[in-house]
Specification:
The protein is mostly helical and 65 residues long. The protein has 2 helices and no strands. The two termini are 19 Å apart. 0% of the residues are buried.
Length: 65
Amino acid sequence: MVATGTWKAKKHKDMATAAKRAWATLRKMKPGDQVWLHHSKPHGTATELAARGKQGETVYAATYD
């Protein structure tokens, strides 16, 4: 919700700024398309993808359940 501007970040403001920038970039890449965010609990696939990204790997996926 911070990435979309619905909520204002109170902590981790650098991360919030990066998320907003990524959201804006995605919206520009997909004009006219609906783009969705999905909140994931801090385990499983989301944690694995975050760890891979931290190592410099880029992962693209249509959806994750």
